[in-house]
Amino acid sequence: MGSTSDKISGKANEIAGKAKQAVGKATGDNSTRAKGAVQEAKGKAQTAKGDAKGKIKDVVDRM
């Protein structure tokens, strides 16, 4: 995956994770809430990976 793809996937997972957490909180379902937190964390990691790839590409392009 390229840096842009990682960033898009990461943001999508962050949003989906936050939504799951909200549903879990509203319904009192701790399992759904926990799954949402895990998905949000995965999304943040993907976004960070995309940012890192982009920065590395910028450095290589300047050489």
Task: Describe what you observe in this structure.
The mean pLDDT is 95. The longest helix has 33 residues, at 30-62. Helix 1 (3-27) runs antiparallel to helix 2. The chain has helices at 3-27, 30-62. By secondary structure, it is mainly α.
Q: Which helices and strands occur, and which strands form pairs?
A:
Blueprint: H1 3-27, H2 30-62
Essential attributes:
mainly alpha, 63 residues
Spans with pLDDT under 50 lasting ≥5 residues?
none
Q: Helix count?
A: 2
Mean pLDDT: 95
Sheet with most strands: none
The fraction of residues in strands falls at: under 5%
Radius of gyration from the alpha-carbon trace, in angstroms? 15 Å
Order of helices and strands: HH
Give the fraction of residues assigned to helices.
Answer: over 70%
Bulk shape: rod-shaped
Q: What is the number of E strands?
A: 0
Look at the helices and sheets and give the structural class. Answer: mainly alpha
For the record, give the distance between the C-alpha atoms at the N and C termini, rounded to a whole number: 23 Å
Brief overview, please?
This protein has 63 residues and is mostly helical.
